[in-house]
Hints:
The chain is of the alpha/beta class. The chain is built from nine helices and 15 strands. It has two domains: about 5-70; about 95-370, Metallo-dependent phosphatases (Purple Acid Phosphatase, chain A, domain 2, 4-Layer Sandwich). About 30% of the residues lie in helices and about 20% in strands.
Amino acid sequence: MANPGYKTLGHIIVFLSLFAIFSSNLFVNKGSSQGLGDFLDNLFDDNDNGDEIKKKIEKELKDKDKDNKQEPEKEESFDTKDYNFADEGEKERKSFNFAVAGDFGCSKNAKNTVSNMKDKKPELVIPLGDLSYSKSANCWLDLISPFSDRLKVTLGYHDVNDGASKLNQYEQTFGLKNHYDSFDYRHVHFVIMSSLSKFDKGSEQYKFISEDLKKASEDKEIDWIIVTGYSPLYTSPSKHTAEKDMRDIYHPLFEQYGVDLVLQAHNHNYQRTYPISYNSGDSSKPTISNQFTTDYSSQSNGIVFAIVGTGGEGFYPLENQAAYTATQFTRFGFLNIEISNGNPHTKLTGTFYDNKGDEVRDQFTIGKEIQVKKLVDKS
Length: 379
């Protein structure tokens, strides 16, 4: 009977010889959960001989080589049929509220924003772009799923430019033929702009928006016109500057057709202007129509612009405050818009709710008079 000590010594000599040959490839996979000690334990037992050890090493090398050839990560599928605005076109004249914020991401801050929104029970939620900062939309879609039947999204830079797969996911999920659109809800006309699509006066988007606003302004059933977008037309000094070219094209158009409120994001902070009018001499210095902090009239010929980039991504500093800006701050939260439908008076109330303590950080109102035809009961 062979001496077990000699047998073990022979095993070690064979192993060391083979290890010298294969060591350059053996442990290339640094992410392997199997350490050197575990590997040796698997190679040796009392009945092994040199040939068996060699076979085990060759098999181990093949397995590790296979592990190193990583398959491309597959995109999770997502059920798109549940994401839509179920009540679009609802015409009942009653008060309602909707929630807006942009620059979400999928952090705890974003989860708090969604939870804060849920507490206010909005009938409509309008995300203002830069929804997910991950390589797919899955985390954000999961986050926003409590509002899956009341969403109208605006797309931002990271939604459009982070790869075709991610953009395609948004387009399929929300049935987006174009990145700009419009819709009616309870006598409010909403226009969704695309800052990242062509917007000059010869573009399809300009043609769509100008015709759409003209039609809405002539519709006696429309009490309010609200525009949402991504890049701001006006901003206090912060990381991103205002979109001058877009401002020079669309602010005069908004005035022409009676837009009441413009909601945007991109800068990760909150800013809200006084009602302002376009200044053709220097559009960066708009005319302030009313310097009260609230209680505006839509007949004052000024439009309120708000940046709500407070959904959850890290803040951008506010370096100064523009003269036309009524209030600004860096807090996570959302802007709740309540429409009080009445006859002949109707009112829009904007309230910014801070995620911390549900504190009200800003509030403004816009009022107008309307005439609603009373229905005659012919029964």
